From TrEMBL:
It comes from Virgibacillus litoralis. Residues 1-24 form the signal peptide. It holds the Pfam family SBP_bac_8. The keyword Signal applies. Residues 33-50 have a biased composition (Acidic residues). Belongs to the bacterial solute-binding protein 1 family. InterPro entries: SBP. Keywords: Signal, Transport. The keyword Ribonucleoprotein does not apply. This is Chitobiose transport system substrate-binding protein.
Amino acid sequence: MNIFKNKEKFILILLFSAMLLVIAACSDDAANSDDTIDDSGEDTAGDESEGLSGEVEFMTISLSPTFDDYLNNLKEEFEAEHENVTINLRDVPYDQVEQVVLTSASSGQLPDVMNLNTDFVKKLAANGAVVNMDEAAADVKDTFFEGLWETGSVNGEVYALPWYTTTSGLLYNPDLLEKAGYDAPPTTFEEAWEMSEKIKEETGAYGQVVTDEMHLLMPKNGINILNEDNTQAAFNTSETEEMWKDLKEKYDKGLFPEDVMLGQVKLPELYAQEKVAWWSTGPQLFRQVKDLAPKVYEKSLGAPALEGKAGVQHANPMNIAVSSNSESKEAAVEFAKFVTNAENQLEFGKLAAVLPPVKEAVNDEFFTKGKDSEDATESGKYYAAQQLESAVNMTPPVEAVSEIYKVIREAFHRVILEDVEPAKALEEAEAEVNSLLE
């Protein structure tokens, strides 16, 4: 299938939708190989799918026209297996999704199968508008990585299947590490900071750099942004206070620059100039360095993302949900499982530079071949796929999430740049966040 046109546009959309969650489901019978997905084309839906009928509208977000061939192929294959089912494709631009979903929900006319972000999944689930997947898709639950299956959960029940996602890898410069006496990159944040001081002394380059993503650094180290029911701030803790004090000390030592923290300078630019020893990001972005500085990219290597105290990584998954009012509910559920099975997830991962949150798919050679690759992007892709085992979505499912992140970010900036005591900054930020949640 030739669906690579406008691929860069798709990746930008994916990043712009960084708060979107991903869905992936895999049929229990999808493969019988240790390394590959069974592409025999056999119907793996099982006896329950026999006799399916009706029309099913499948709404996607900003996938057309780039992935029209892929989506049409899904439609044709499913219809060939179920001759009494008709799949109608509908793609909605990202900036129109909210209006379309809210309008459709208010009229009780939601699309049968929907590509949704996590926030919408939870809102619709709270109103009984989408199907409980713990019940309807129980047969495929164990094919997903546990942390990603829980993405669409509300009150302990899951209402969406995880589709495509991303995680991070580490791009590093072995020359800078060698000059500082290291032969391997750090594996934890603690180790990264230990190495950073020597790297700065020996090379003048930075090691670990603080970005504007405090909202991810905190959960990776076991600090929750909100409480369990997302009604109050939960980050004003002694652990956060100690973290911010420690980072303030590191800043005062000159171990990280303020311009990156403030979003004034982009890390790929610093990395390309060999002013920073490593860059943690999605491996699909590693080649930005190749565009900026081919020689720096050629000597760079890929590694797993740094691990915090909580031992989890962040993933931004998309979801697929089924309308509880669908007139073709059985067919819609089976189609949702078909879209997110291992074979179809793997195919989409190959085309779109994303990861399938299905256990079987990431064991395919497409990902595993990168384990020993000297190309940073290939090895980074392997490590990112392996990290799905410990991946969770760290974005609180509340409308004011962007404002909450801004409050936390600005409180941290006051600690670093204005010498405000961490305890005071956290107390003020807590009050602001609680006000946003009222």
